[in-house]
Amino acid sequence: MNIVALVGSLRKESYNRKLAEWIKGRYKDKFQLDIADIGALPHYNQDDELNPPAVVAAFKRQVAEADGILIVTPEYNWSVPGVLKNALDWLSRVDKVLVNKPVMIAGVSTGMMGTIRAQLHLRQILQSPGLAAKVLPPAGNEVLVNVASQKFDEAGNLVDAATVEFLDQVIGRFIEWVGR
Ligand SMILES: Cc1cc2nc3c(=O)[nH]c(=O)nc-3n(C[C@H](O)[C@H](O)[C@H](O)COP(=O)(O)O)c2cc1C
Questions:
Q1: Which of 14, 32, 35, 107 stands the most exposed, by the fewest C-beta atoms within 10 Å?
Q2: From the CB of 46, is ligand 1 less than 6 Å away?
Q3: Residues sharing a CB contact under 8 Å with residue 116, sequence separation 6 or more, in sequence order
């Protein structure tokens, strides 16, 4: 199984990137996880969508060939970061490679709310006709990792036992969702 991750934070010490890397390691026997370089994408420009830059074409191909997509994102100002929205806007046009693609959402925040507002907004965005992704339903599957400084160790490992146990369950359901 081949999963591609979109990480909504570009910073080197990003907790969301750490979570994506941790997922890649913990479930390596279940799927291969490749983290897409969405920071390398230019700003979406409709003038270029029929003949996009090579980096955009390669990204769309990577998503098209994936069995499923994992989005791991912080919340910026109660919504999704621009870099993630930009990537989704590219995906939403011309060949629309996210349509019916299985997607799982997770997020990490430093505060209490665990990216819930961003995730609700992201679910709405993913329902738009150009994206129309097959998102893992929220009931029982909302991965909202709050107070990040208490959940990861110095090396970037997720060390909160309850969060690890919950992720094991949600990832199991995502694998089933992808296999349907
Ligand atoms: C521009 C910006 C906006 C933010 N807005 C929110 C927000 O709306 N809600 C929230 O819980 N945290 C917010 N935060 C705090 C993030 O949860 C925190 O910076 C987190 O570490 C970002 O994820 P990262 O570690 O993967 O970069 C914001 C941070 C930044 C830099």
A1: 32
A2: no
A3: 75, 142, 144
